């Protein structure tokens, strides 16, 4: 049985105790959270999953409408006159809407979409700037039950075309009234390549709302019930020359967890009844923005603040922003604050909370920001990845559970593991890769139309675990600490390519072998890659002819799966890849080998199998100095 | 004389009296028993004992044995116990068609269930030149035969199978009526003893056997034969106690060389186990309760220690006793010398180890019987003497092996000598002489292998639960061995730490590190702050200096950019535990480092990614401000060189910090280096002020200056400072003599003071790059030691640098 969980904890031990209980009562816990939503049809299963195959499904057979859930909540709670969405331009408030305006516009938008043939289970691309149109479009699509595919205006048209092709989208939403020369160029290109009737320009259609009472409007329209596992949105990412990856997020699971995690981390503090303003620094279209900015925020009746410009975060500027509401939370990525200087002498505690997400937060930065919040523990960092939907490891707004610089503690029901490269669990403080043995509701359920790739990228490395490609450690108090990203992304001929993607493809090939991809930045032709391969068939090593053959196969495979741009400048065959005692690839050494920057008496004390690279060192290392 | 002493004397004579009494009684038994026993032996040899007579004799002998065994083991009349037991086993084995043995090997249920419908089974035991074969019907061995290989035909599984089919046909034995075939187990993978059902996994494992041996064919022959049978699906195929059994105790697996580990495989397990259980059955004991040693001596020999039903210790022809054609264990230094002097080749060594050693090498035959008969006819006096010596040698080797297996200190209930050689009167009489007083020594000549194979199979036929699962047992054992191996491979000290007397001069960098380890063990680990820890070399050096299970000469605080340090820490498996390693996120590492030093939280500074100048400037500012730099003190750099051709260390200064020091500065540099000499426990350090020449020459400025400086140290009693000196005079005694240098430094300088940074740098780099010299560096800065390491430094050098600064810290 799941006990009543206190809202605050005395110490980390007490937290871990409850955390443990939620882990063993995972289904019960999320069932309870799901009860905070209105379901048209109850789900029969909380979760069914198989991590060996990389499959998961939350709230099976349940049906609900995301839009109606926001509507019902606001009706019940604070009422339609509350602030809903504010668009700023630098320090100035440009537009401001209450829930009445946003809800009625959303319904009108829905009608328009339906008129151009958007139906339940369709997919629609949003290529819009931060603004009311983006917000109401998202709500309107959810009301229909169509999946949104949101993009910020920085994406290149070529990529959008690829995505439209990949997901067979029903419409592309643009707004030609947005006066930005680059954007104008882009939509011109799109207009040239996309069939006319697939493009919907907000500038040429006016969304009219005749009724002002949202309740009347709701009554007049039919809202379909959407299946819980159906996608609420799909988040697409460019990945080199391979097919784009579109992570799908299920309506039921995403909504349940977004509502819960927002309430937990952003809403329920001080006086719970008063409305909060969330200033989200960034674009509306990322999964994080959708989880906390849109769905989490609206499901809790709070107000979202976006900026149409990109502010330069300075103390004075931040202070202006905080004035947008009486309780303002700032949500921002840490690198944006790297230049920030805080004068701590005057009283500058103008934010309720500062939420850091999406990057490493150094203890120094957190301590600095603590000067800007009412209580030092109100600077929170969230660990979120593209695929994770919501934050599942985070610090909490209470002193004993907030350690500056740490990733924090696992969210309820989430059980992280740290494994070394042999798949063994790492002891306390020893670093390894962060993985999970079970899912959480908001997690991406697949890659759209590429189930196998979802499995390959996230479940293949450690059988039965969802891997994060993040290197972390856990201290003796149960706090997680980020150490490094294990997946290097570098640019080749303008394409971005991740080492893990390339390694997964090559190492999975029985004709090749275990592969390490080393990116070398700043050679003459821009970045460059070098491959180290330990062939599965060791006999290849003693036969130069067959060795060359393997290299040929590798080149052919890269050409076929990625393109010419990803061809490595050098391929070296080794008996095995050099690893540390815990199995980590010694990439720094490989990097230096690739750059031919090896000392005559290279310190190999950290390499567990120095024999593996001895021949290379003897060939290359010798001539550098002697 | 004290009273207690008298009591002791009385008690001692009491013991003597009692012992005499025991001996007298033993003699009495001898008188009474020797004749009837001799008679029985004679009758037995002539085959004149009828079945009825036998059972009455047996029951009498057993009663006698029981009576003798009831006395405590240390006072037992081992000689007669052994004699009786030998006779009893012989009588039991006399029974027709091996029924006596079979009845002891079959379980009670098997015996009962098979009385009406005895199963027919075949036993296959291939040897190198023949295939032994036996057919059993229930508890009766109806046929036993040795099919010799025809010299013309190929030797493979098929020809051997055919020859068996042929033999069966001749003897009108039907393959179709067989319920099972029991095959001698070859070199499958190691498993515990027992009877195993033959599976395809076993066949797979036999494809790549550890050792090529005829017995490897048995299982395949069995499988082949079964295929020819009409009821091939019902034929049970088993093997019992294969040669690769392994039940050895972990402690027995260790050798004096970490790369070589023993295991229990490679012995006549089938016979060892059979003899052990036969004797246990006769003595009415459970196998697990009967501890003993069985010595299988024959063409090959092995000794097995039975404890708690397992063979916990083992000596075979590779780990000890020589056999007919194997050399046994040899004295390695002599082997090495032989190889070095080209008297022995590796090929020869292989041959004598596996096939051409032992008796074959010593006597030119692998047949002991040939030796016995040669003694009787044809041998010369010398040859006879040598042959007798050889018998003595073999007997003694076996006896020594048996005593060695007693090394666990636990008593044995019996020692059994079995195998073909147990029939040799020469060997067995010698063994009897050595062992019978100490152990209940029983001779079971020949082997019980076929009976054991047949009985194992029949017990399996009766109750499938009796059979073990090969795959499961194999993997379980492999897993167990793997775990043991990883424990046995646990590193205790990575580099051997050789303890030395306190205060003795440090002569090499390895000794320097050892001294540091000891110093830290006696005190505590000082804390080193790495200034700008986002530096791979510094991190690697720190890792070397603080490794779980190896060294922990310092703890480290890594100051600098949080993200970068974490990345490196991850890559190099640094365990950030906030004790041994702590990350301190700070944008100005040197200021933070000094702040921590001032608070007493760190003791030593180490250069990371920051430039040396920046660190020195920061430290200097601090020292000046806090008044910790005493007037007249100077910051200088010393490098301690370990030059392979020299038997002591050399300190070079200053090759890094003071580029062109004047006379006064160089005097201060010498003072700093005298501190370094103290760290190295040099009581009277010899300081050479280097110049191009050892005479004062006006055209060489450094020579004039050297003279000035050495003059300033002329009155010192704690050191010898001489100059000018040329490098060769300072470092090479021969040259010093040749050049007739008259000073006290005769090629044995400890400290070399160079004229300037150019000379110093050239000297130190030429030593490290051209002479394989290893160095440790330190900056002396008031009381703050600063460690410098660079990418060019080897792991050893980095460790030594940290060691030097740790020693320096404890000195100040």
Task: Please summarize what this structure is.
The complex is a heterodimer of chains A (626) and B (812). With 626 residues, chain A is α/β, with parallel strands linked by helices. Chain A is 31% helix and 23% strand.
Structure report:
- The complex is a heterodimer of chains A (626) and B (812).
- Chain A contains 17 helices and 29 strands.
- With 626 residues, chain A is of the alpha/beta class.
- In chain A, the strands form eight sheets. Chain A has a nine-stranded mixed beta sheet with strand order 5-4-14-13-15-16-17-18-19. Chain A has a four-stranded parallel beta sheet with strand order 7-6-8-9, with helices on both faces. A four-stranded antiparallel beta sheet of chain A has the order 20-21-23-24, with no helix packed on it.
- In chain A, helix 4 (99-115) crosses helix 5 (132-144) and helix 9 (251-267) crosses helix 10 (287-299).
- The longest helix of chain A has 18 residues, at 544-561.
- In chain B, the strands form three sheets. Chain B has an eleven-stranded mixed beta sheet with strand order 14-13-12-15-22-21-16-17-20-18-19, sandwiched between helices. A six-stranded mixed beta sheet of chain B has the order 3-2-1-4-6-5, sandwiched between helices. A five-stranded mixed beta sheet of chain B has the order 9-8-7-10-11, sandwiched between helices.
- In chain B, strand 7 and strand 8 form a beta hairpin.
- In chain B, helix 1 (3-46) packs parallel to helix 3 (78-94), helix 5 (108-114) crosses helix 16 (449-462) and helix 6 packs across helix 8 (217-228).
- The longest helix of chain B has 44 residues, at 3-46.
- The model of chain B has no long low-confidence stretch (mean pLDDT 89).
- The A-B interface holds A 360, 362-364, 405, 428-431, 471, 473, 475-476, 481-484, 580-582, 584, 586-588, 599-601, 603-606, 625-626 and B 536-537, 540, 543-544, 561-563, 566-578, 585-587, 769, 791-795, 798.
């Amino acid at each position: 049985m799941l006990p009543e969980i206190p809202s605050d904890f005395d110490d980390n031990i007490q937290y871990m105790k409850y955390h443990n209980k939620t882990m063993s009562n995972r289904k019960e816990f999320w069932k309870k959270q799901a009860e905070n939503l209105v379901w048209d049809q109850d789900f029969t299963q909380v979760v069914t999953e198989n991590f060996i195959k990389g499959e998961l499904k939350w709230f099976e057979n349940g049906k609900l409408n995301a839009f109606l859930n926001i509507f019902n909540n606001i009706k019940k709670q604070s009422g339609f006159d509350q602030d809903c969405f504010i668009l700023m331009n630098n320090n100035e408030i440009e537009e401001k809407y209450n829930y009445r305006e946003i809800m009625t516009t959303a319904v009108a938008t829905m009608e328009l979409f339906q008129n151009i043939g958007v139906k339940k289970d369709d997919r629609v691309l949003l290529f819009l700037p931060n603004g009311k149109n983006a917000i109401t479009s998202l709500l309107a699509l959810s009301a229909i039950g169509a999946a949104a595919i949101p993009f910020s205006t920085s994406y290149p048209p070529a990529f959008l075309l690829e995505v439209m092709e990949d997901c067979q989208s029903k419409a592309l939403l643009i707004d030609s009234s947005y006066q930005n020369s680059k954007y104008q160029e882009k939509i011109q290109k799109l207009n040239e390549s996309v069939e006319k009737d697939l493009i919907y320009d907000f500038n040429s259609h006016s969304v009219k709302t005749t009724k002002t009472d949202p309740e009347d409007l709701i009554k007049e329209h039919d809202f379909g019930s959407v299946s819980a596992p159906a996608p609420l949105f799909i988040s697409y990412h460019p990945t080199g020359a391979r097919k784009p990856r579109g992570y799908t997020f299920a309506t039921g699971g995403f909504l349940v967890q977004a509502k819960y995690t927002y309430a937990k981390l952003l809403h329920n503090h001080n006086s719970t009844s008063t409305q909060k303003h969330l200033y989200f620094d960034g674009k509306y279209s990322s999964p994080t923005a959708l989880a906390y900015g849109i769905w989490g925020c609206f499901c809790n009746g709070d107000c979202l603040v976006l900026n149409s410009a990109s502010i330069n975060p300075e103390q004075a500027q931040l202070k202006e922003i905080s004035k947008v509401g009486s309780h303002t939370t700032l949500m921002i990525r840490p690198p944006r604050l790297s230049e920030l200087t805080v004068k701590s002498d005057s009283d500058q505690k103008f934010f309720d909370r500062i939420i850091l997400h999406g990057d490493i937060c150094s203890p120094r930065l957190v301590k600095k920001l603590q000067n800007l919040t009412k209580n030092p523990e109100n600077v929170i960092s969230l660990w979120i990845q593209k695929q994770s939907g919501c934050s599942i490891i985070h610090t909490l707004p209470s002193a004993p559970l907030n350690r500056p610089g740490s990733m924090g503690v696992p969210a309820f029901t989430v059980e992280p593991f740290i494994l070394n490269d042999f798949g063994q669990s790492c002891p306390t403080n020893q670093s390894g890769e962060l993985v999970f043995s079970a899912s959480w509701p908001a997690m991406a359920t697949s890659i759209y139309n590429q189930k196998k790739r979802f499995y390959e990228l996230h479940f293949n490395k450690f059988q039965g675990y969802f891997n994060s490609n993040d290197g972390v450690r856990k201290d003796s108090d149960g706090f997680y600490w980020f150490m490094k990203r294990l997946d290097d992304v570098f640019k080749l001929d303008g394409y971005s390519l991740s080492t893990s993607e390339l390694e997964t493809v090559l190492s999975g090939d029985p004709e090749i072998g275990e592969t390490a991809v080393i990116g070398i930045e700043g050679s003459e032709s821009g970045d460059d890659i070098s491959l180290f391969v330990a062939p599965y068939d060791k006999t290849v090593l003693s036969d130069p002819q067959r060795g060359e053959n393997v290299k040929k196969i590798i080149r052919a495979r890269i050409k076929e799966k990625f393109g010419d741009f990803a061809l490595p400048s050098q391929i070296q065959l080794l008996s095995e890849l050099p690893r540390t005692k815990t199995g980590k690839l010694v990439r720094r050494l490989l990097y230096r080998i690739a750059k031919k920057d090896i000392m005559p008496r290279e310190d190999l004390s950290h390499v567990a199998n120095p024999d593996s690279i001895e021949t290379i060192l003897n060939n290359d290392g010798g001539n550098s100095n002697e | 004389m004290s009273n207690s002493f008298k009591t002791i004397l009385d008690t001692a004579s009491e013991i003597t009296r009692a012992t005499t009494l025991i001996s007298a009684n033993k003699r009495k038994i001898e008188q009474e028993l020797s004749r009837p026993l001799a008679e029985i032996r004679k009758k037995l040899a002539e085959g004149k004992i009828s079945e009825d007579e036998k059972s009455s004799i047996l029951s009498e002998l057993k009663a006698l044995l029981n009576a003798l065994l009831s006395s405590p083991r240390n006072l037992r009349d081992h000689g007669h116990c052994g004699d009786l037991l030998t006779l009893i086993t012989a009588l039991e084995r006399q029974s027709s068609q091996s029924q006596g043995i079979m009845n002891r090997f079959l379980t009670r249920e098997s015996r009962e269930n098979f009385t009406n419908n005895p199963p027919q089974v075949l036993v296959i035991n291939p040897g190198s030149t023949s295939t032994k074969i036996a057919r059993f019907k229930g508890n009766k061995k109806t046929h036993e035969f040795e099919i010799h290989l025809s010299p013309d035909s190929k030797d493979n599984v098929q020809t051997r199978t055919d020859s068996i089919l042929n033999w069966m046909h001749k003897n009108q034995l039907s393959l179709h009526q067989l319920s099972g075939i029991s095959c001698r187990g070859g070199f499958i993978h190691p498993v515990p003893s027992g009877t195993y059902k033959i599976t395809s996994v076993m066949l797979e494992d036999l494809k790549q056997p550890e050792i090529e041996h005829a017995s490897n064919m048995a299982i395949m022959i069995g499988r082949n034969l079964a295929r020819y049978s009409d009821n091939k699906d019902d034929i049970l195929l088993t093997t019992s106690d294969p040669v690769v059994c392994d039940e050895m105790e972990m402690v027995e697996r260790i050798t004096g060389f970490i790369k070589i580990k023993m295991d229990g495989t490679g012995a006549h397990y089938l016979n060892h186990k059979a003899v052990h259980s036969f004797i246990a059955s006769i003595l009415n004991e459970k196998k697990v309760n009967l501890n003993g040693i069985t010595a299988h001596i024959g063409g090959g020999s092995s000794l097995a220690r039975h404890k708690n039903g397992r063979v916990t210790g083992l000596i075979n022809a590779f780990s000890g006793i020589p056999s007919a054609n194997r050399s046994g264990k040899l004295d390695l230094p002599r082997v090495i010398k032989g190889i070095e002097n080209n008297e022995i080749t590796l090929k020869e060594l292989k041959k004598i180890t596996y096939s051409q050693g032992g008796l074959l090498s010593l006597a030119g035959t692998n047949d002991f019987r040939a030796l016995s008969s040669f003694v009787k006819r044809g041998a010369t006096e010398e040859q006879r003497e040598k042959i007798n010596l050889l018998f003595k040698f073999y007997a003694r080797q076996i006896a020594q092996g048996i005593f060695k297996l007693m090394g666990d200190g636990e008593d044995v209930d019996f020692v059994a000598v079995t195998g073909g050689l147990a029939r040799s009167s020469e060997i067995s009489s010698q063994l009897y002489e050595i062992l019978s007083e100490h152990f209940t020594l029983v001779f079971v000549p020949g082997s019980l292998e076929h009976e054991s194979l047949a009985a194992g199979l029949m017990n399996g036929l009766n109750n499938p639960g009796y059979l073990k699962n090969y795959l499961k047992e194999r993997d379980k054992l492999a897993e167990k061995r793997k775990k043991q191996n990883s424990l046995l491979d646990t590193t205790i000290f990575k580099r051997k730490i050789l303890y030395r007397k306190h205060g003795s001069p440090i002569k090499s960098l390895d000794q320097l590190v050892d001294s540091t380890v000891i110093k830290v063990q006696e005190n505590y680990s000082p804390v080193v702050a790495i200034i700008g820890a986002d530096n791979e070399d510094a991190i690697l050096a720190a890792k070397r200096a603080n490794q779980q299970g190896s060294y922990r000469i310092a703890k480290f605080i890594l100051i600098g950019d949080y993200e970068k340090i974490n990345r490196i820490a991850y890559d190099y498996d640094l365990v950030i535990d906030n004790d041994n390693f702590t990350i301190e996120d700070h944008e100005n590492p040197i200021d933070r480092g000094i702040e921590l030093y001032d608070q007493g939280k760190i003791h030593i500074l180490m250069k990371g990614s920051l430039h040396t100048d920046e660190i020195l400037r920061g430290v200097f500012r601090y020292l000046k401000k806090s008044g910790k730099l005493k007037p007249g003190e100077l910051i200088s750099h010393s490098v301690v060189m370990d030059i392979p051709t020299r038997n002591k260390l050399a300190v070079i200064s200053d090759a890094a910090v003071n580029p062109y020091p004047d006379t006064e500065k160089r005097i201060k540099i010498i003072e700093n280096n005298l501190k370094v000499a103290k760290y190295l426990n040099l009581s009277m350090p010899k300081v050479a002020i280097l110049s191009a020449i050892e005479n004062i020459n006006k055209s060489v400025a450094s020579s004039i200056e050297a003279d000035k400086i050495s003059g300033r140290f002329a009155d010192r009693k704690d050191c010898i400072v001489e100059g000018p000196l040329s490098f060769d005079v300072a470092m090479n005694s021969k040259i010093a003599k040749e050049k007739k240098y008259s000073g006290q430094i005769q090629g044995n300088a400890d400290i070399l003071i160079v004229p300037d940074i150019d000379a110093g740098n050239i000297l130190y780099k030429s030593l490290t790059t051209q002479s394989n010299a290893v160095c440790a560096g330190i900056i002396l800065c008031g009381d703050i030691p600063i460690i410098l390491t660079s990418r060019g430094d080897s792991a050893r050098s980095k460790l030594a640098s940290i060691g030097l600064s740790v020693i320096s810290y404890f000195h100040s």
